[in-house]
Amino acid sequence: MTPERKRMITPEEVEHIGWLARIKLTGEEKEQYAEQMNDILDYFGKIDEIKTDVEPTYHVLELHNVFRDDVASGSLEQGAALANAPKEKDGFFKAPRIM
């Protein structure tokens, strides 16, 4: 660890994370994981320094609605709706009783 770098994650915090995960860590592992986590946070800091003054894009290509307009139309006649029904009674679908 370089002296000018501020430690963001301490070995004590790594110990707490290990306790939450029910993982037993040695003192050496706590130091090692704290160092690795701080390195990861440093990389995020470097990414934050990059200038990204571009308009966000949600889709690479222009998207257009591919669905047709919702237009009301006539319903099926009762006889046509019941034509393929396995059972019907008095003009309605007949289904097995559910208990």
Any low-confidence stretches, pLDDT <50, length ≥5? none
**DSSP strand content:** under 5%
- What is the CATH class name of the domain at 11-49? Mainly Alpha
Outline, from the CA principal axes? elongated
Descriptors for this entry?
99 residues, mainly alpha, Histone, subunit A, two-stranded antiparallel ribbon, 3 helices, 4% strand, elongated
Describe the 3D structure.
This protein has three helices and two strands. The protein has 99 residues and is mostly helical. The protein has a domain at 11-49: Histone, subunit A (Orthogonal Bundle), CATH 1.10.20. It has a two-stranded antiparallel sheet. Helix 1 crosses helix 2 (27-49). The longest helix is centred in the middle third of the chain and has 23 residues, at 27-49. The chain starts with 10 loop residues before the first helix and ends in a 6-residue tail after the last strand. The model has no long low-confidence stretch (mean pLDDT 87).
Topology:
Layout: H1 11-20, H2 27-49, H3 78-81, E1 88-89, E2 92-93
Helix pairs in contact: 1-2
Concise account of the structure shown:
With 99 residues, the chain is mainly alpha-helical. Helices cover 37% and strands 4% of the residues.
